[in-house]
Amino acid sequence: MSDFFNSGWSTFIAVATVVSLVACLALLVIASRRKPMANDNTTGHVWDVDLVELNNPLPRWWMVLFVLTVVCGGAYVFLYPGLGSSAGTLNWTSTGQYEAEQKKATNAMAAVYARYVSQPAEVLAKDAGAMGIGERLFVNNCAACHGSDARGSKGFPNLTDNDWLYGGSLETIKETIANGRQGVMPPMAAAVGSAQDVVNVAQYVLSLSGSPHNAIQAAAGREKFIACAACHGVGGKGNQALGAPNLSDKVWLHGWGEEAIVAMVNNGKTNVMPAHASRLTPEQIHVLGAYVWSLSRGASSGP
């Protein structure tokens, strides 16, 4: 595929474009110089006994329209990037236009966000206007993963409960939105021990949340769980500084049960929350963060 990105292709496209425009003009010139092909101004072609093809000139309006089309095409490739890698005299780019439109929209909304940027989450959560904006920001930027109702799905956290991997304060939520997160659970089978040890640890993890489990296997897995305690804590309460989940509640991000836990211990898992600092302004992140903060507290008064 790298062959398509060398300068030769740019030259080829530029030459092909110019030749096409010139060929169109040449076609017009040739068509305008009609010559009778028979004494009666016909081409000599007859169909269905009496349907005769005449050698009349092209309509003037059609000729004018064709010329205007070619002229407009030439003007376009002169002004805009239509000749290979040539930028055109206007130096227009789709990226530049997008950025200009984004800047215009940001400036237009600056006055709206100005009234919200200094307000804490507790105040914004009771402001219907702020929550309406936050909801729309959420739908446009977050709903694809977390769902339009923010309840998430397997592998995507539920934002309406109080179970937070990194903490649920407004500042922490804003940091997550702006910079993203990368949660890594390394494969731990070698550290835990044998395949049976992994099963025992899975049963012990189930016991931490009061889930149905095999008590004998769970007791055997308790000692082996020490390999996991560095991140999840001795009691499996998790560590928000590391983003290590709390294993003692009944919130299962990647699936519940022995099979799911064994797979996690054996294979590990990497979850990525993309950064949005390049997509959203700090003011938008503040309002969006307040909206997400309100979801788990039932304080939103938005639509």
From TrEMBL:
Q: Is this entry keyworded Electron transport?
A: yes
**Coiled-coil portions:** none
- Return the Pfam families for the record: Cytochrome_CBB3, FixP_N
What cofactor requirement does the entry state? heme c
Q: Which InterPro entries match?
A: CcoP_N, CcoP_N_sf, Cyt_c-like_dom, Cyt_c-like_dom_sf, Cyt_C_IC, Cyt_c_oxidase_cbb3_su3, Cytochrome_c_Oxidase_Subunit
* Domain of life where this protein originates: Bacteria
The note on cofactor binding and number reads: Binds 2 heme C groups per subunit.
Question: Where does the UniProt annotation locate this protein?
Answer: Cell inner membrane
> Transmembrane residues, as ranges?
12-31, 61-83
**Which terms are listed as keywords in the entry?**
Cell inner membrane, Cell membrane, Electron transport, Heme, Hydrogen ion transport, Ion transport, Iron, Membrane, Metal-binding, Oxidoreductase, Repeat, Respiratory chain, Transmembrane, Transmembrane helix, Transport
Task: Give every Cytochrome c domain span.
Answer: 129-209, 216-296
**Pathway membership:** Energy metabolism; oxidative phosphorylation
Subunit comment for this entry?
Component of the cbb3-type cytochrome c oxidase.
Q: What does the sequence similarity comment in the record state about its family? A: Belongs to the CcoP / FixP family.
Describe the task this protein carries out. Answer: C-type cytochrome. Part of the cbb3-type cytochrome c oxidase complex.
This protein's name:
Cbb3-type cytochrome c oxidase subunit
Q: Which organism is it from?
A: Piscinibacter gummiphilus
Q: Which gene is this protein's source?
A: ccoP
